[in-house]
């Protein structure tokens, strides 16, 4: 077992237990999937889903594509397996192109609602504006939104040479502290990085390029994305993450993500009008 895997797996088990508790709560009780609105099919903004897997097994994610106006389910897309402790990014264009059944261009609405299932972990809606190239975190899922102070579900890796990422370590305690951060890649490798000592009631920002190069072992140059998890720490210690196009000077916060702990649904009818929209009883905004 690679050095550091024990800590990484422990962290994943803790996240898995928390997500299971969420799934059993009223806010996460809908069995059909996590409902995420706001996906434009136009060319001005390109949408992506970023998944992270907190389970002890690899999983395929199911994404059902619904018209935002009628609720009609137009088709469904299934991801490749997301590795244990790993990540996967898919564009909305990829999901539409791989939809089953195919979605004819004349039936594609201007806006989609996505219903996501089949994974225990997190998902983010990342959007890239075509004109400026700027990235934004547009994740919207009501009470299912979470920012864990000691984990970051998706950070861009060395292979994303177009992206600059930065991690902030905040020390809200009354004593100087250092924090160890573990970086998990899709190949199962775990790298560890120790921050410099941060003064009490202070915060420091570090470039991910610096963190990944200084980690032991250094993060593989082929890694496109990673899950970052910190060692246990007192209340007041927190991680946050921001990224943007390299050289742009514009960054968006990608610390928060939507929790996902829902099994893949059984096959359902397609093209059934509003009747094809899943039962959202128990989801945020849809009380029993």
Overview of the molecule:
This protein has helices at 5-24, 92-97, 208-214; strands at 34-40, 45-53, 62-67, 73-78, 87-91, 111-117, 119-129, 135-137, 145-146, 151-156, 163-171, 180-184, 190-194, 202-207, 225-230, 237-245, 252-253, 257-262. The longest helix has 20 residues, at 5-24. It is mainly beta and 288 residues long. Helix content is 11%, strand content 38%. Strand 12 (180-184) and strand 13 form a beta hairpin.
Quick rundown:
The protein is built from three helices and 18 strands. By secondary structure, the chain is mainly β.
Report the strand count: 18
Structural shape: globular
Mean pLDDT: 85
Summing up helix and strand content along with how strands pair, one would put the structural category as: mainly beta
Number of domains: 2
Q: What would you say the CATH architecture of the largest domain is? A: Sandwich
| Model regions low in confidence, pLDDT < 50 over at least 5 residues | 1-31, 272-288
Rg on CA atoms, Å: 19 Å
Any idea of the CATH topology of the largest domain? Hypothetical Protein Tm1070, Chain: A
What is the CATH C-level name of the largest domain? Mainly Beta
Gap between N and C termini, in Å? 46 Å
**Helical proportion, percent range:** 10-25%
| Separate helix tally | 3
Mind describing the biggest β-sheet? 6 strands, antiparallel
CATH superfamily of the largest domain: TM1070-like
SSE order, one letter for each helix or strand: HEEEEEHEEEEEEEEEHEEEE
């Amino acid at each position: 077992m690679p050095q550091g895997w024990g800590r990484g797996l422990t962290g994943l088990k803790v996240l898995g237990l928390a997500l299971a508790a969420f799934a059993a709560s009223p806010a996460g009780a809908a069995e059909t999937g996590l409902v995420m609105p706001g996906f434009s099919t136009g060319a001005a903004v390109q949408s992506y889903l970023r998944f992270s897997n907190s389970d002890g097994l690899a999983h395929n994610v199911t994404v059902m594509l619904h018209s935002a106006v009628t609720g009609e389910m137009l088709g469904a897309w299934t991801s490749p397996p997301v590795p244990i402790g790993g990540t996967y990014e898919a564009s909305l264009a990829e999901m539409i192109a791989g939809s089953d059944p195919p979605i004819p261009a004349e039936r594609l609405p201007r806006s989609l609602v996505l219903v996501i299932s089949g994974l225990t972990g997190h998902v983010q809606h990342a959007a890239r504006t075509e004109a400026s190239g700027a990235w934004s975190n547009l994740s919207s899922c009501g009470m299912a939104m979470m920012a864990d102070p000691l984990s970051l579900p998706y950070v861009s890796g060395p292979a994303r040479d177009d992206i600059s990422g930065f991690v902030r370590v905040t020390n809200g305690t009354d004593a100087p502290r250092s924090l160890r951060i573990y970086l998990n890649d899709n190949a199962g490798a775990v790298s560890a990085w120790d921050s410099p000592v941060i003064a009490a009631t202070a915060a420091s920002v570090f470039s991910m390029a610096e963190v990944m190069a200084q980690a032991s072992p250094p993060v593989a140059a082929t890694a496109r994305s990673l899950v970052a998890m910190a060692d246990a720490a007192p209340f007041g210690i927190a991680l946050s993450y921001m990224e943007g196009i390299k050289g742009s000077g514009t960054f968006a916060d990608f610390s928060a993500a939507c929790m996902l702990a829902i099994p893949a649904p059984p096959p359902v009818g397609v093209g059934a009008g509003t009747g094809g929209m899943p039962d959202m009883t128990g989801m945020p905004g849809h009380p029993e």
